[in-house]
Amino acid sequence: MKKIIGIATAIILFASCGKNTAAKETTKKTDDMKKVLFVLTSHSELGNTGEKTGFWIEEFASPYYFLKDKGAEITIASPKGGQPPIDPKSELPDFQTPATKRFNGDQETQTILANSTKLTSINANDYDAIFYPGGHGPLWDLAEDKNSIALIEAFYNQNKPVGAVCHAPAVFKNTKGANGESLVKGKKVTGFSNTEEEAVQLTAIVPFLVEDMLIANGGTYSKGADWSPYVIEDGLLITGQNPASSELVAEKLLQQLK
Question: Is the pTM value of this prediction over 0.70?
Answer without folding.
Answer: yes
